[in-house]
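Intended use. Records like the one below are meant for learning the mapping from a protein sequence to its folded structure. Do not use them to infer anything beyond what is encoded.
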Amino acid sequence: MSTPWERFKLVAQLKETDELPVALIVDSPWLAGYAKMDTRDYYLLPDRWLEINKGLLTRFSDIAWIPGFWVEYGMAAEPSAFGARMHFYANRPPAVEPVIDSVSFWAEALKPVNPQEDGLMPLVIRLYEIMDERLQADGLGIHMVCARGPMTVASWLMGVTPLMMALIDQPEELTRILDRITTSIIRWLHAQLDTLRQPEGIMLLDDLVGMVSKKHYQEFIHPHLRRIFDEFEGLIRIYHNDTPCEHLLESFAEANFDVFNFSHETEINVAKARMGHRVALMGNVPPLDVGVRGTPEDVYQWARKCLDAGAPGGGHILSFGGGVAPGTPAENVDALVSAARQWSQAAHLKV
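Structure written out for the chain above:
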């Protein structure tokens, strides 16, 4: 019997497995509420952080947690390294305040970051070192690290509107900015991976990519995504983008990642048909309307619908169409597992 992480890796490589995997992206927006604690304490109390994350492996033993033992301060690590102002709260993740909205300023002033010294990154790296060693002593370990993508990072520096306008008005300056941010992201991912004894994967999160046209994606964004994913050839590479972006599906299939976590507003059979059997699809139960507001039966029925559409032929990992949203009940997570287990059993009986 394989473990949830082993099943996840097999499907990510488009291979067969004994049971269809369930995988969920979780971080502080859900975990702090799940543990009924102050969000700031979740960041500041490493022993409590460790207890909560280890507890997931016991309470939900059939789920692959992605990335698993994620050392994060909400989305603060990357923007803090570039000088963005952060606002921390008791009951929600930190907010990011853009630095200056001048594209020309950033085209001249932006320098790639040093993850060992800049912003909150050194604290993340140090905590990874400590926690991976402690987890190794328990026969566990941290296998995956994360970074926000170039468009999301750029939006924190200058704001979303100036960034989108620069696609039209200042394309050369924007290209310089995205190139330096991409260099920073690669450095940041390497710095995190270097702290782990058994690194096996990366996840890149960038929802803003879904807001651009196919033409602008191909010209301005695809080269940077491809550069990041090419850098980590041989590891499991996950791309999270839960902005509806069906117009980019064929292009994403050429970006050289292994797993795509995408919006529930895109039907799995549509994504599968347009991306081909080149990428494993991770989804696609609605995270808010069903995951948070629905009953376990609602989640189960939605999950069965997703499985019927996406699982035949392989390459499907059952999940929410995005991360686990704050307020998602544990019973609704259980319903995902039940649906996957019963679907797998029924499929085996048909063989």
